[in-house]
Amino acid sequence: MFKVMAILAYIALGCVLVSIYRKERNKSEQPEETPEREQPEPKTPPPPTPLPDERRTDPRWLTRRISVVVADADSRKMLTRATIYDRSLTGMRLVAERNLDTGSRLYICPAHAGKDGASAKVEVRYCQRSDDGWLLGCRFTEPLTEEASARFG
Predict the structure, then answer these.
(1) Which of 13, 50, 63, 108 has its CA 20 to 30 A from that of 78?
(2) Close Cβ partners of 134 (under 8 Å, ≥ 6 residues apart)
(3) Confidence at residue 49, expressed as pLDDT on a 0 to 100 scale
(4) In the chain, which residues have pLDDT < 50?
(5) Quick check: helix, strand or coil at residue 63?
(6) DSSP per residue over 86-143, as a string?
(7) Torsion of CA 103, 109, 112, 118, to 10 degrees
(8) CA 80 → CA 35, 47, 97, 102, distances in Å?
């Protein structure tokens, strides 16, 4: 019972943080009001230009560091171990022990599997070297189950 309440509290906290983030983002996008006589001619603003490295469509949140096993999605052959760094509704970022090719389809499961059998199928969108290992940006290829969502943060 305590685990269920802790998971619900964690989800609620995530929802609150996402709503605060969205409110702050909307505040910064709205123009400040000025008196009518001082308003310049209305101009069409240029469309926002995303940062070249930024491809996110959903906000991400940090997770507790969860050790996972990374396997090939088809053969389930273990490829490497990794740690989940952050997650969004559509994907996750891992720090892996080795380089994996962009476009690879992977099967992610907790290193210490429990009864729930939480797992995720992902596709590698990018892989780059970091001080801790290899950063893997992954997109879910199938929706997460409730158990997997709770287990992966």
Answers:
(1) 63
(2) 95, 96, 97, 98, 99, 100, 127, 128
(3) 47
(4) 49-52
(5) strand
(6) EE-SSEEEEEESS---TT-EEEEEESS--TT---EEEEEEEEEEETTEEEEEEEESSP
(7) 160
(8) 61, 41, 6, 15
